[in-house]
Amino acid sequence: MNNRFLLYLLAFVLISAVGGWFLLPETQGTGGLASIEPSGQHPFYARHPKDPETGKFLENKLGYPGNQPTDSVTGELAPEPVRNWNYIDQLSRPFGSDSLRGKVYVAEFFFTSCPTICPKVKGQMLRLEEEFANEPDFRLVSFTVDPKRDTPEKMKTYAEKLGTQNMDRWRYIYGDKFEVYDLDADYLSIAEENADAPGGFDHSGYIVLVDRKGFVRSYASGLKPEEVDFLMKDIRLLLDDPEM
């Protein structure tokens, strides 16, 4: 495991703590999430903002998870959107962050030859595509972390075999490897080349929800269908309220 990955791992632990995950010893059996016993709420909602009066997490409101900056004067949260990017998709069409303005979308990182978590995460992405198939403002984005082998043509074939229903709604992104590796932090994810990892890459398997203005608003593990169930509710919040 190289130094860069260790730095990413440390940053991810810090991001998780700020974003609402409580990584405690007594959380065995809860997938690393502390149970929120006083409120009786599911641990997923720990990434939502909290009502200061009741102490409960607001299930119908979304915050800005991750290590977001604060205003130097007021001390209030001053979230930043995902940085701009411009690459091409599986049909070799130019596509970038500006193409997603005004849309609600989910993003994840993968590679077509992944032997471990990618098939499971893609199964959850297929669920999301089907669930929101009739929502014109919903999109899905998958960034390859292996552009050397994952050409647009190969990703097109992969998408077809996977059962992707709409190549306009779900974009498989081919971009500069090092730029994509830097972009992963904006999406609260890890994408790292590692010769010792299965398939040669470390990646987190998270599905990250982004709002119409380009801000990350929620996330779920693509390895946990129950979390994706809750993520669907967060997606619905953004689709139903364009101002959220």
Briefly characterize the structure:
With 244 residues, the chain is an alpha/beta fold.
- Strands in their spatial order, largest beta sheet: 5-4-3-8-9
Q: If you average the pLDDT, what whole number results?
A: 83
How much helicity do the residues have? 25-40%
Q: Please give the CATH architecture of the largest domain.
A: 3-Layer(aba) Sandwich
Strand content: 15-25%
**Tally of discrete structural domains:** 2
pLDDT under 50 segments (min length 5)?
A: 1-37
Molecular shape: globular
In DSSP terms (H or I, runs of 4 or more residues), the helix count works out at 5
CATH superfamily of the largest domain: Glutaredoxin
Which sheet architecture does the biggest sheet show? 5 strands, mixed
Q: Taking Cα atoms only, what radius of gyration do you get, to the nearest Å?
A: 18 Å
The ordered H/E elements are HEEEHEHEHEEEEH
Number of strands: 9
Offer a few descriptive terms:
globular, five-stranded mixed beta sheet, single chain, disordered N terminus, alpha/beta, Glutaredoxin, 9 strands
Describe how the helices and strands are arranged.
Blueprint: H1 3-19, E1 86-88, E2 94-96, E3 104-110, H2 118-131, E4 138-144, H3 152-162, E5 170-173, H4 177-183, E6 191-193, E7 201-203, E8 206-210, E9 216-221, H5 225-240
Parallel strand pairs: 3-4, 4-5
Antiparallel strand pairs: 1-2, 3-8, 6-7, 8-9
Structure characterization notes:
The structure is a single chain. 27% of the residues lie in helices and 17% in strands. It folds into two domains: 3-47, no CATH class; 86-240, Glutaredoxin (3-Layer(aba) Sandwich). It is globular, with a radius of gyration of 18 Å. A five-stranded mixed sheet has the order 5-4-3-8-9. It has helices at residues 3-19, 118-131, 152-162, 177-183, 225-240; strands at 86-88, 94-96, 104-110, 138-144, 170-173, 191-193, 201-203, 206-210, 216-221. The chain has five helices and nine strands. The chain is an alpha/beta fold and 244 residues long. Residues 1-37 have low confidence and may be disordered.
